[in-house]
Amino acid sequence: MASAPAFLLLFIMLLCSATVQAQRKIPLGSPLTAILIKNSNNTSWESESGDFAFGFQQIEKDGFLLAIWFNKIPERTIVWSANGNNLVQEGSKVELTISGLFLIDQTGKQIWSTTKTPNTEVSYAALLDEGNLVLANQDSANLWESFNEPTDTILQTQTLTLGMILVARYSESNYSSGRFHFNLSDKGPRLYKRAFPTEVGNTAYWQSNEVSSEYQLTFNQSGFFCLEAKNGTILTVLLSSTTSSSERDFYRRVILEYDGVLRQYVYPKGDYSISRLKWSMAPSTSIPSDICSNLTENTGSGSCGFNSYCKLGDEQRPSCFCPDGYVFIDPDDKIKGCRPAFEAQSCDKDSLDGDLFDLHTVENADWPESHYEHFIPVTEEWCRKACLSDCFCDLAYFKNGDCWKKQLPLRNGRMRSNYGGKAMIKIRKDNSTSKPGGTKSKGQDQPTMLLIGFLSSSVFLNIVTLVGSLVLFRFSKKAKVIQPYEFMPDMNLRTFAYAELEKATNGFEEQLGRGAFGTVFKGVIPFGNVSLVAVKKLDNMMKESEREFKAEVSAIGRTNHKNLVQLIGFCNEGQHRLLVYEFMSKGSLAGFLFGPLRPTWHHRMQIALEIARGLFYLHEECSTQIIHCDVKPQNILLDDSYAARISDFGLAKILNTDQTRTTTGIRGTKGYVAPEWFKNMPVTVKVDVYSYGIVLLEIICCRKNFEAEVDDDTQTILTDWAYDCYASGKIEVLVNKDDEAMEDMKRVENYVMVALWCIQEDPSLRPAMKKVVRMLEGTIEVSDPPDPSSFISFL
């Protein structure tokens, strides 16, 4: 019997040996040469499956790139490269020696080499089926891996650790280092634009702070690009693929592209002779979703070059354009920006070319951080004249009574349909390139004298008097009905007239939903083009005075968190109280969670964490502590990327700085209301914690908290059923038909335990939302929860 363990060990060693032998080993001295002949045995090494190849690829007519690529698909998509900044020519070679891999150009000069552990000899190389090129010693221990030195792409099973960096290529066909980096710092992963051509980071335009002290990024087999703690706990999913087929049916890659956006792509495996097969971007899998808006620099050019503007096109891809009167400096390299195609206005005091210029209006475009003067409140016509009369002004931007004068070079240019405002660009009339400062010809004298005579005549004076009277009459009538835009001080909250919101909603025609305090309608607020909004009309039972209403709106208006729906403005006119929010295109969590297309388990985990972070912000991080009072799936909305955003907190209970509790009438929705509301006890932020616990159970189980029509009566009340399953050790019953969750039962149990702590009858036993966030992230351990009270809020 003593020989059994030895036999087992021998069997395992034989299996490992077979695995190693299954690798296609490349022995020392194997040649690779850069030649124009395609499919030559001397130009690439393949992985065992043939999915990947390593070797030379010709980059147009510029030279050869030493790279790894997807080998079976027609595109031969490159995922790693060694010499993007220094292409080599035909005749260059790769040498595999005991010291590593060496790239030698056609003149014999060393261009690139691997790094390896000192005093250890390389025995062979191998390109693994995951796309990882490794150098190994005679004991099959890896001395160097391409996965540890990524360029711009991450493949499945690849992990990024602290200090690693992705560098975008310069352009689609230029593999030299570009302007954008993605790195893992001790403060979290971030995307930033570097001060090109130096390596110094200039502007971070996206950063995730949701990390533990030690974390890593993993692109797992399920297609999730995740932030993970070192113990394997998923902190957040950055990018994901929603394909329902097995991961074996798709190739996947995550790439930091040359436009600065991190994207995930999928490619179906199969008959590659089918012409329609191609890489497609997985839905809602790009960071950031709108780089045109996200990237604003104080000293750089922005997402596009100077004097150009960025606009999202198909699949939300940014493209760079020149405004009218401007042309690209280099049409083959648009990121170098644009230049005027005319001679600039002269500032010579004797110049006569001022009349040769006009302003071309571009709706919904702006070049932020390019201004040198700002005026408010003024009219659009005043703004136009001020720029035309100023030889330094190259562009005037007008919006809601604000006028900015801007001058070259213009930076951070962007265009989007809901920006509002007008960019008025100064250009020469009729694309004139006339020289400034000339004298007038004699041919101009006679018309000029005739004009002067007309201007001095009584007929002209009578016309001016009549037209002036008509203008004053029309203006006095309009002044009675048109109200100027007003904004709350210290924040960008706009005040709306009731008539304006009534018109914007077409008489409050399309109802989006009804909450505890009012009804929400879909509206269109004109800002140049149109912008969708959600207008909440509060019930008449609200009796706050104008001062109290504005104080609460002011506090809400100062909130700023990615998991809260943003308040745009309000109406406080007579008896009318309305709130205007940004419109969430994907609807409510209730519709998504309880509908036919429920989210995946990983997506539900992410939504649960996002809601918790939003409540944590309301309770502890914003300037004024806010109790939401009505946390439920109907009040959790989903943005364009299906990220969770808490809504309907416009008239939640706001605590003073010296308050931790308050007394108020029962607020909320049956099924989510904490027990203390019914006991006339002072309420605290723990009422939101209770409601969150109910919502968390609904997210876990993909069902409502009360369902009368169930096969088993013990499952009618979700809280009772969840605790019974937990107490009996049968948590898997809660996710019985969810294969993805069934494969992650440890985390399912963890989430159920957190929910049970949140719904304790005694508020003091419920954890604060900060602790809830940490428990969900896995940074602190969750202890066994006691039995929640049998008191149920909807009885």
TrEMBL record:
<feature type="domain" description="Bulb-type lectin">
    <location>
        <begin position="32"/>
        <end position="148"/>
    </location>
</feature>
<dbReference type="GO" id="GO:0004674">
    <property type="term" value="F:protein serine/threonine kinase activity"/>
</dbReference>
<dbReference type="GO" id="GO:0030246">
    <property type="term" value="F:carbohydrate binding"/>
</dbReference>
<keyword id="KW-0430">Lectin</keyword>
<dbReference type="InterPro" id="IPR008271">
    <property type="entry name" value="Ser/Thr_kinase_AS"/>
</dbReference>
<dbReference type="GO" id="GO:0016020">
    <property type="term" value="C:membrane"/>
</dbReference>
<comment type="similarity">
    <text>Belongs to the protein kinase superfamily. Ser/Thr protein kinase family.</text>
</comment>
<protein>
    <recommendedName>
        <fullName>Receptor-like serine/threonine-protein kinase</fullName>
        <ecNumber>2.7.11.1</ecNumber>
    </recommendedName>
</protein>
<keyword id="KW-0245">EGF-like domain</keyword>
<feature type="transmembrane region" description="Helical">
    <location>
        <begin position="449"/>
        <end position="473"/>
    </location>
</feature>
<feature type="signal peptide">
    <location>
        <begin position="1"/>
        <end position="22"/>
    </location>
</feature>
<keyword id="KW-1133">Transmembrane helix</keyword>
<dbReference type="GO" id="GO:0106310">
    <property type="term" value="F:protein serine kinase activity"/>
</dbReference>
<keyword id="KW-0723">Serine/threonine-protein kinase</keyword>
<dbReference type="InterPro" id="IPR051343">
    <property type="entry name" value="G-type_lectin_kinases/EP1-like"/>
</dbReference>
<feature type="domain" description="Protein kinase">
    <location>
        <begin position="506"/>
        <end position="780"/>
    </location>
</feature>
<keyword id="KW-0547">Nucleotide-binding</keyword>
<dbReference type="GO" id="GO:0005524">
    <property type="term" value="F:ATP binding"/>
</dbReference>
<keyword id="KW-0418">Kinase</keyword>
<dbReference type="InterPro" id="IPR001480">
    <property type="entry name" value="Bulb-type_lectin_dom"/>
</dbReference>
<dbReference type="InterPro" id="IPR036426">
    <property type="entry name" value="Bulb-type_lectin_dom_sf"/>
</dbReference>
<dbReference type="Pfam" id="PF00069">
    <property type="entry name" value="Pkinase"/>
</dbReference>
<dbReference type="InterPro" id="IPR017441">
    <property type="entry name" value="Protein_kinase_ATP_BS"/>
</dbReference>
<feature type="binding site">
    <location>
        <position position="537"/>
    </location>
    <ligand>
        <name>ATP</name>
    </ligand>
</feature>
<keyword id="KW-0675">Receptor</keyword>
<keyword id="KW-0325">Glycoprotein</keyword>
<keyword id="KW-0472">Membrane</keyword>
<dbReference type="Pfam" id="PF01453">
    <property type="entry name" value="B_lectin"/>
</dbReference>
<keyword id="KW-1015">Disulfide bond</keyword>
<keyword id="KW-0812">Transmembrane</keyword>
<dbReference type="InterPro" id="IPR011009">
    <property type="entry name" value="Kinase-like_dom_sf"/>
</dbReference>
<keyword id="KW-0732">Signal</keyword>
<keyword id="KW-0808">Transferase</keyword>
<dbReference type="InterPro" id="IPR000719">
    <property type="entry name" value="Prot_kinase_dom"/>
</dbReference>
<keyword id="KW-0067">ATP-binding</keyword>
<dbReference type="InterPro" id="IPR024171">
    <property type="entry name" value="SRK-like_kinase"/>
</dbReference>
